[in-house]
Amino acid sequence: MGRLYLIQLDGRIYSCRHCRSHLAQCDELVSKSFHCRHGKAYLFNTVVNVSVGPLEDRMMTTGKHAVADIFCNSCQQVVGWKYEVAYEKSQKYKEGKFILERYALLP
Amino acid sequence: MGGDSDVGQPPLKRQKLSKPSHKTPCEGSRTGVAATGSAALMARSICSNDGETVGSHGQIRKVEFVRIIEQALFSLGYQQAGAVLEEESGIRLQSPAVQQFREDILAGRWDECVATLSEIGVLEESTYKAALFLVLQQKFLESLEASNTTAALETLRSEISPLGVSTSKVHQLASFIVCFPEDLLAKAQWKGAGQESRQSLLEELQQLLPPSIMVPERRLEHLIEVALQVQREACVYHNTLDHVLSLYSDHRCSRDQIPTRTLQVVEGDSLKVKYKFTGHSKPVSFVAWSPDDTMLLTCGNEEVVKLWDISTGQCKYTYDKPNSCFTSCAWFPDGKRFVSGGGDKCIYMWDLEGHELEAWKGARMPRINDLAITTDGSHMVSICDHKNIRIYNLEEKTERVIEEEKPITSLSVSKNGRYLLVNLVSQEIHLWDISAATKDLPKKYRGHKQGRYVIRSCFGGTDYAFIVSGSEDSQVYIWHRWNGELLDVLSGHSGTVNSVSWNPVNPHMFASASDDHTIRIWGLSNRPMPKKHDEKPGSSNGFDHLVNGGTRDLLENLRPFNSDTD
Predict the structure, then answer these.
(1) pTM score, two decimals?
(2) Locate the Yippee domain: which residues (chain A) (predicted)?
(3) Strands (E), B184-260
(4) Which residue among B367, B425, B547 sits closest to A2, beta carbon to beta carbon?
(5) What is the CA radius of gyration of chain B?
(6) pLDDT digit string, tens, across residues B128-142
(7) For the CA atoms of chain A, what is the radius of gyration?
(8) CATH number of the domain located at residue range(s) A30-106 in this protein
(9) Which of A10, A82, B150, B299 has its CA 20 to 30 A from that of B266?
(10) DSSP per-residue letters across B452-469
(11) Of B285, B386, B451, the CB nearest to A7
């Protein structure tokens, strides 16, 4: 593999459980009250060291959304998803933000 | 100016003669001096429909055109030819007053100069005064040098001061009176009475007076050089070493001036492994040759820095710090010192014996991702905090920070030390000017793919006219530096192209390294393969960013390339 480019963050951070690469800062946390298949999930404004997969429409508890899965750059595991489009007005605030599953995060 | 006795003249010309509004048309066969038929032919062809302008676009005024041709003839030494042209066309290079003025200056007849100056065309008040000042200054200095102090004083009093031009200069001139004539030349920075100083006075006056009165020297040569320059810059594929362009046809290089063909694919076993350096415990991520090619610096991914000697293959020194996590290093051009920086937020400067010479630390010093030093050793560039480029001037100890919006993956500086290239995660390459004090927008190059890996790019070609970069889609991208146009996309690799390096001495060759475990050497497509490649596979000196896998050994199979390839 070539040399991976990983961004290092300062302060209190969440990292990927498998490869310990930094994913997001605590300051970027928006909400802790999300759920996914495996349990709890957090909503963040920005995350780093992830790459985005293909866009698809999914039906979620809050309605239909267009989301794309995100993968950790170094270990290729799915760590959550990104909201691209929210079809309901009340859910518009999520657009452009990222969900990271609690299961995939450290600490 | 009759000409009606010339039977041979074409009817077109005779018509023109009858029109009084036109200026003097070219009268080919009028003069008796050497005006041959060819001159008449030329004269006829120059006169286009409109007698005022020349050229297919009608942008060149005929009077000006003829005048600068005459000037070129005179300056080349063809006095007779120039005089003939003046007679034939009836357009004089300079009016008689100006002619007189020039001769007076060169002969040193200052009073006549002053008188003629007022006769030369219409001048603005300030220009007239400034010109007068220059002439009188010369007169003053010459009389001082001849130790004719009274005359000089007289000039200063009665002629220079009343002008009211620049009193500080007048004071300076007054101070020269008390100098010895020998010191005068040094103090006034004046070359002494004689042709040389008078010639330079003439040039100064030329710059002052409007160009229609006195045509600036060497005007035709200047215009042609400007045109050649424009052609050269417009030619996107220009990559030749010779500087003299032909005047006969417009200059346009064809596409085969840039390397587009793979000359050689270097795989794992085809190069002779000279040494295997072991010792790093983490993947080796950065390699730098010393400027004299005898030593190699290697740097792990957040690890120690090791210095290796090429001739013996031994590790000369290991540079360690308590929490060492160095990510990159750069040599100084003298080959005796280098800097290294890393995640512990400090930049250290070391020498070859292992002593730490200097350290830049502090709370403000953020994490360093990449380092580079310009080839003249004056600036140190570093990438801090993923998004900032810090250009630190080593002599003046000042710094300048450029902020980018997206994280930067790699950095490279051009060999002339003026430009730097950064690759961004957002799939753009930005070109910044180091020396410019203004914060201009950078030039941007797009088209390649980048997102996860560190991809390196570099400058290439004569005059660093090309930007070449690797990409995650296994192709090599070449852009033209000035207009940002994507010139070529080269395929051939089957994995991410991590790093490229252009041969510093041969502008038609570069190398690229990729994740498919090969190195490719690229050259021109229509040249036969040069023999040297068969016997001595190896990469050029500039190729100091090697693809590194997750191995613990560094495959040391690069020998310095001979620079005497064709």
Answers:
(1) 0.64
(2) 12-107
(3) none
(4) B547
(5) 34
(6) 777 778 877 778 777
(7) 14
(8) 2.170.150.20
(9) B299
(10) SB---EEEESGGG-EEEE
(11) B386
